[in-house]
Amino acid sequence: xxxxxxxxxxxxxxxxxxxxxxxxxxxxxxxxxxxxxxxxxxxxxxxxxxxxxxxxxxxxxxxxxxxxxxxxxxxxxxxxxxxxxxxxxxxxxxxxxxxxxxxxxxxxxxxxxxxxxxxxxxxxxxxxxxxxxxxxxxxxxxxxxxxxxxxxxxxxxxxxxxxxxxxxxxxxxxxxxxxxxxxxxxxxxxxxxxxxxxxxxxxxxxxxxxxxxxxxxxxxxxxxxxxxxxxx
Length: 232
Known about the structure:
The chain is α+β, with helices and mostly antiparallel strands. The protein is 20% helix and 26% strand.
């Protein structure tokens, strides 16, 4: 739908009702536009106007956006043999997909949506959005090794080092690693290049969107408008 548009047309599409029902709701003052009820069906609605029906704000958004605290043992794509899909944890009438994947043995923040253009912005290297991981290693990591990760490290089988990363030590075997790339098994391979092994990996944040601490593994919620706009 293009803006501006008539209020009754907007209401019909946003609330999934007929135009005649929309006009009736408007006459009965059940519709509010920018906090005004003295309105008519011919009123022009523009981008940014706030329209509500019985106190519930309406939107023409046709896509859905979620954050999931992905548990271990779930794949980020369609279900595989013996491995359930994280997509099955989301109750949505629309076909959704993961905007960036997490390995089966990695937990934490997974963004899911029905909006292909939005997910491309989330995953595009040009977005310069850092992904923040809590990394637990089998052995202690030195300050010098953390600096190597920050400067960029050459992965096995590749001829170009990783882009500069950010690190924050939590203890001798645990630290936060923030990377802006998304190479195959990148965090594990970066640590393997130092002769160490990742034994637990948890994503806490993508760009400005942080995993809601109220979400237990397997739980999800819809993203707020502010969170959605972080990638638009």
